[in-house]
Amino acid sequence: MVTEPNNWGRFGPEDQRGTLNLLTGERVLAALAAAVTGQVLCLSMPVRRGGPRLRGRPEPQHFMSIDGADFAAGTRPVGAGLRMADDALIVSAHGTTTHMDALCHMWEGDQLYNGHPAAQVHSYGAKRCGIEQAGGVVARGVFFDVPRHLGLDHLPPEFRISGDLLEEIAPVGPGEVAVIRTGWPLVWDRSPEEYWSGQPGLAASAGRWLAERDVAVVAADNAAIGGLNPRQLSDEDLADDLHLILLHRHGVHLIELLWLEELSATGRSDFVFVAAPLRLQGGTASPLNPLAIL
Amino acid sequence: MVTEPNNWGRFGPEDQRGTLNLLTGERVLAALAAAVTGQVLCLSMPVRRGGPRLRGRPEPQHFMSIDGADFAAGTRPVGAGLRMADDALIVSAHGTTTHMDALCHMWEGDQLYNGHPAAQVHSYGAKRCGIEQAGGVVARGVFFDVPRHLGLDHLPPEFRISGDLLEEIAPVGPGEVAVIRTGWPLVWDRSPEEYWSGQPGLAASAGRWLAERDVAVVAADNAAIGGLNPRQLSDEDLADDLHLILLHRHGVHLIELLWLEELSATGRSDFVFVAAPLRLQGGTASPLNPLAIL
Amino acid sequence: MVTEPNNWGRFGPEDQRGTLNLLTGERVLAALAAAVTGQVLCLSMPVRRGGPRLRGRPEPQHFMSIDGADFAAGTRPVGAGLRMADDALIVSAHGTTTHMDALCHMWEGDQLYNGHPAAQVHSYGAKRCGIEQAGGVVARGVFFDVPRHLGLDHLPPEFRISGDLLEEIAPVGPGEVAVIRTGWPLVWDRSPEEYWSGQPGLAASAGRWLAERDVAVVAADNAAIGGLNPRQLSDEDLADDLHLILLHRHGVHLIELLWLEELSATGRSDFVFVAAPLRLQGGTASPLNPLAIL
Amino acid sequence: MVTEPNNWGRFGPEDQRGTLNLLTGERVLAALAAAVTGQVLCLSMPVRRGGPRLRGRPEPQHFMSIDGADFAAGTRPVGAGLRMADDALIVSAHGTTTHMDALCHMWEGDQLYNGHPAAQVHSYGAKRCGIEQAGGVVARGVFFDVPRHLGLDHLPPEFRISGDLLEEIAPVGPGEVAVIRTGWPLVWDRSPEEYWSGQPGLAASAGRWLAERDVAVVAADNAAIGGLNPRQLSDEDLADDLHLILLHRHGVHLIELLWLEELSATGRSDFVFVAAPLRLQGGTASPLNPLAIL
């Protein structure tokens, strides 16, 4: 049903939401039925310095512009006694913290997903396919806990998850969110150097398997959906690059650097998945705190 | 039932989540029943320069570190042809964009909500009551569309919403989110100067009415929950300050600078309210894109 | 001698320093002779929020990442007792603080000064004519204190300084720095709105007069060398635009937003002018603290 | 003559400039006589990502907010054809690029240099001893090219330069700038890991020798004036810590992370040293491009 390159026939040349268009009200209502206990889990890592990230990426920086220590040291309160803390955040989301990729994040040639001219992504931000187009995601989440399925703590760095392996674990359908665990974030605490030695991820066959099933979003706990070699690059050629298969050719939004350890411990295989990317105008991504309603 | 100052008896001295503790799985499941059509609305304003904000606050800044124009102008693709866009965001959320306040954002004296020492909020961030403690919010949202109730486009700047007026509009109960519309963001497009001439907001009586009902969150489309005078300060004394009543004394998280115009157009009075603040460690707030599932 | 457009015949197609090439060792030694008392004056405004700037430009932001208040409030010192303060600066120099423009800052058509392709100024920074090419400026400064010459506190906003007026005030020669006072920064403290009502500056004839004299740098206390109308734009067409005449066509570096009030009070007409722009690789400008050695 | 701790008797409790007070007009004029050829050398490293820095420090970030690639890709020029490039810089100067330390940068106990309360250094910046107090430095620079003196390319990481060794190389007097080369920046290009394995620097005896001679500034090409161990900390106790001896007890401004290789190649032993720190209000440091006029 889906064809490469680019899914133009389907959503048309003006589409900037890709497979998020599949999130109809009907599907949202159906998805809510996946909630059983009502427990809400955060699936993101903390936004802070010192956490898992791709080597060389600028870490999030957080500054306090006024804080409690200032008042303790004698700074005068506002008005009759009001005290407050204020801060600023600097964040480059890709490769540094849990985030959703916008459809403008990656492409080949001169066109973004669905034929939008790549030159419209310039210093003023993305005029097409920016993250502000994504809106909210409320969908059934299907959990592919690959290391648990294989009896491992985490996948080894050279492991590539095939479409057949996904097929073995669970069915997933149109408008659903495929949540894929590699366990790789566990490695960071043991050793950042080991974390940077490569990363497990999806094989091209898994990307095609997911695209064929019309998932709304692919969300993983690794840094690049696909695997990485020790130079932090993918080994696939352009035809098989995971970002190009999913984001560029099929308009599938991607979520990366999830934290899925508590979710894994629940043993749940599906749940309500909610993600609300910031409406950062022209942004290539948004830092994100996806929720699982169990 | 609730008493001022501070709600210590209730959640105990180590509590950092305040009334978000009311979001039990049972309540979450009940809240999901408020979804009727499954339509998902974003309740946030875009994150960008030039939008409604408090005068003098640093606007969000968004920079592209690589973009499509670079490739169009001859920058070499990665590897065999991969092209990408990457960016950075600088944001001070208070007063500049839709956000949730952490419990460490405001206080009087030397203690935050529930007795945490204010000096623990220092340049390394908030060691207590930071926004990373909030977790996800999934609750029934109750809509107080005040101007619609009064037959106005938006409230005038000096208007203060009383507890009696809220009572007149809708009941709200424990663990629910009170979503309050003033319509004030509509003024921005007409004139930033008029936007800065003051702001409508809650009167102290409304803050107390909401606290008594044990709402989980108070969320409004103005900049400060309470009203503002032309100097952008509140006219209430400390006893009646809305942030102190709600955030400081009762541990009620606040969401500000919402965009509620589409929600108002639906005529809906309740819905599922979802908010997923970034787990910004030690943060005093998180930029936010709250969702209404209708 | 100099011809428009662009001064290619003179410094050749690879030149990235423009008239700074005139700063030979011989001229530097001669310039040092202008020092009489040895007093050193800073000619810059403070880098901070709240100072004179063009409307709408992002102000400098300064954050402390650790400070004395933190230690006063109980933060543990480093090692056996060392305490320190550290900070971060975010600055967009144009229009916000004293700075030197790089030769890549402005152009018409597809080429920078001296034929460098403008497309080489991209998201990775300027590959040609970045501010890191400027190096240090040590030259004789010639002071054109225009309001003092005319018996005014400051020039009115619509005032345009002609070449004839400069000629009347002082001679200036090759490799010297023309320091031009309008007094406009004095207006800021009276009223930012008045400051933004327009700005006095050089007329095109003054730009040509300076270019003909082969000055090394033109340095002024207004925001744009040329004058500005109330919309903060120049009224000149491209042929007469001051940045294009000086920076683009003749390779003259520009310094803007100086603070010249103490210098004016000295009554000095020449001095040693020193400027040391940060070697910000690929930068379009550097914040700057120029010195006058009197 | 000088006494520890703190030099209060000398400049008095309100002094915020320390030994920069020694830069009298008379001394400045005398210093200018050190210029022989008039050649001007920049003594700073480029401000950019990827250069020598202390491990873990946030690197400078440079963003273009509009650039030539945007116009090449179709962005509309301003007005009738004006094109421009604009940018932003984020910089934490300590440990990342050439900079001057303010007197508020380091202390022990509760007081900065000369008795100023350390609590006055808070989130709004340093109210005392900020870098904006430094003003410009024009002084005779005395070059201590230690590796050249010892016949080495660079000092080994565990090398500590004693006062006796400085004495052997050159005399230095009141109000002069001691410029000290270790050659350590050369190691960066060979291997960042080796650069981080430790750093050569001054021994406490050298700090005392310099303080006794009343130098105005101590400027070095290493990261911390003193040496560093592989954990990037100094091995000295508080009594012998170089920052405390020089900056804290004697009010001597420090300049770090210089690039002295071209200066070394000239064989010059003295010159005019000029430094013009940005007047960053309340700043703990300023990025810097010191000049040597040969």
TrEMBL record, chains A, B, C, D:
<dbReference type="Pfam" id="PF04199">
    <property type="entry name" value="Cyclase"/>
</dbReference>
<dbReference type="GO" id="GO:0004061">
    <property type="term" value="F:arylformamidase activity"/>
</dbReference>
<dbReference type="InterPro" id="IPR037175">
    <property type="entry name" value="KFase_sf"/>
</dbReference>
<dbReference type="InterPro" id="IPR007325">
    <property type="entry name" value="KFase/CYL"/>
</dbReference>
<dbReference type="GO" id="GO:0019441">
    <property type="term" value="P:L-tryptophan catabolic process to kynurenine"/>
</dbReference>
<protein>
    <submittedName>
        <fullName>Kynurenine formamidase</fullName>
    </submittedName>
</protein>
